[in-house]
Amino acid sequence: MKYESIEELKKNLAKKWSCSEIKNIGIGVSGGPDSMVLLSLICDLCKIENLKNLCIYVLTINHNIRNSCVSEQDSNFVLEWVDNQKKINPKLKIIAEKRTFEKGLVEKTAQKRKKGLEEAARFLRYNEFEEFSAFYKLNFFCTAHNENDQLETLLQRFLQGTSPVSAAGILAERDIFFRPLLQVSRNEILDYAHNNDIPYRIDETNNESVYFRNKIRNCLVPFLNENFEGWQTAVLHGAEKVRDLTAHIKTVVDSIDIKVVNNNEVEIPIDEFLKLDVGVRIQVLYSAFIKLGIKNRIPYRATKECAISLKMNKHGIYVKTILQKLVICYKLEKKDAICSSGLLAQNSNLMNGFFMLITKCGKYEIPKKFEFTVQHQKNNKSTGPFTFPLVIRNRQSADKVRGADGSLKKLSRIFSDWKVPEELRDEIPIIEAQNTIYAVMAAWCGYKDWLVSNQAFNSGVYISMRKL
User: Fold this and answer.
1) Which of 101, 123, 170, 450 could form a Cys-Cys staple with 105, CB 3.0–4.6 A?
2) d(Cα 83, Cα 98) in Å, to the nearest integer?
3) Angle of helix 147-159 relative to helix 231-255, nearest 10 degrees?
4) How far apart are alpha carbons 301 and 33 in whole angstroms?
5) Beta strand 55-62 with 94-100: parallel, antiparallel or unpaired?
6) Radius of gyration of the chain (CA)
7) Which helix (H) or strand (E) holds 106?
8) Rounded (10°) angle between helices 33-45 and 186-195
9) pLDDT, greater one: 329 or 98
10) Does residue 420 or residue 341 have the better pLDDT?
11) Closest by CA position to 62, among listed 123, 106, 107, 26
12) Cβ(380)–Cβ(415) under 8 Å?
């Protein structure tokens, strides 16, 4: 539905939220006009009688990419605006937090993920959004993407030769994320800010055509505006048609029984798989990769070859047919250990990276680092219990650990709280089972072990560790 004005959007949201059980709303605010208008709009909605009990949770992030003073000022501007709103309306239920990335974290993440700074910043930012949402038990988390962002995204993905699913553009609702302004133009937002005295800050780097997206905004869009009248409507309508098509494909993909066998293996019924067109098979394979927890991009051409041949032995993935099943797993380099270059690349030091898959009791060694003994008997030096298969590895950038209160906390933040030196963080073993971290083994270097209990593991195995 295309809204004629922001006021109409506000009325629609008021009607929708008044009839729901929504209690906690999150919003990411940079201090720019889009997010400040959205924040102001949501604060206005909380003045409505039926919505006075809504709680607003604001998260502002200092990425520490630009001039540190300017980035800090943007974040502080948001916090000050929220404080001022509390004074104007003491009944307003609003909380604001600022999170600051370590200097150089975005650059390191870009290098590890082998992608650009924009993608790395987004990756880290959305990790924070998800953690923030889980901690405060939010009904949804709003971002201020607008119609211009949608157009720029569609152009960018077209030029990058993206998949049909991504070619549908930004979705108004995806998982916990909600984008109310997605059908509102940037000019409408600026007019609304001006007419309602909503302050905001301008990120001057948006005018620099260094990043790919900025080149689209500053070079390609003006060219299209000048030479192709009405291109915006055509592009948006085209994306709508793609969304309708991919919605059907998603329904088909979701109907396929992709069974997770263990921590590094999934199975797909071969007869179901072969009934699908190649294009749909490719999407099923990507869905399987996601279930395996593979975060590195697997090339489309390699995935297509696999969809046709039913074989793959590259990019750390091994695909084979066994009886009537298509089995997809990580490639085992050794009998009891698995080392994927893609996974190790996420560590800050490739030479120090380690990743070991354990499926039975015995002694295991990470050369020149640690010796692990896995056994059913518990002793005064062991940790557990755990269940097979187990993974012992060092940290990855997106690692999160569950605390005693049940909330997820970033491992990097735990290390910061413990004041663990950066050069030591890659040396601390992590024990993972069923895609969940259950132990952070830091006692050997003078800190403490972080252990997560699980009653389902009562009859499992125990691990003792010795530093070599």
Assistant:
1) 101
2) 13
3) 70
4) 41
5) parallel
6) 25
7) helix 105-113
8) 60
9) 98
10) 420
11) 106
12) no
Q: Express the helix, strand and coil content of the chain in percent, nearest 5 each.
A: 45, 20, 35
Residue 284 near residue 251, CB atoms below 8 Å = no
Q: By the 8 A CB rule, do 139 and 22 touch? A: yes
Task: Report the alpha-carbon distance of residue 41 to residue 15 in Å, rounded.
Answer: 14
For residue 233, give the nearest of 163, 144, 161, 147 by alpha carbon: 147
Residue with tokens 């070079």: 219
Distance in angstroms (rounded) separating the CA atoms of residues 134 and 140:
10
- Whose tokens are 């309508």? That residue is 237
| Domains assigned to the chain | 6-144+179-207 (3.40.50.620), 256-330 (3.30.465), 341-467 (no CATH)
Tokens of 442: 């830091």
Distance of CA 422 to the CA centre of its chain: 23
Encoded tokens for 355 = 């990743």
Q: Give dist(CA 167, CA 301) in Å, integer.
A: 17
Residues 32, 17: Cα–Cα separation, whole Å: 25
Q: Any idea of the CA torsion for 212, 215, 221, 222, to the nearest 10 degrees?
A: 180
Q: Sorting pLDDT into bands at 50, 70 and 90, what band is 68? A: low
- pLDDT class for 353, splitting at 50, 70, 90? low
Cβ atoms of 449 and 442 within 8 Å: the answer is yes
Virtual CA dihedral for 268, 271, 273, 277, nearest 10 degrees?
A: 180
Beta bridge partners of 408: 402
**Measured distance CA(452)–CA(307) in Å, rounded:** 39
**Residue of 72, 78, 71, 2 whose CA lies nearest to 34:** 78
Q: How far apart are CA 466 and CA 468, in angstroms?
A: 6
> What letter represents residue 173's amino acid?
E
Which of 11-15, 298-302, 356-360 shows the lowest per-residue confidence on average (mean pLDDT)?
A: 356-360
Which residue has 């008021």 as its token pair?
A: 14
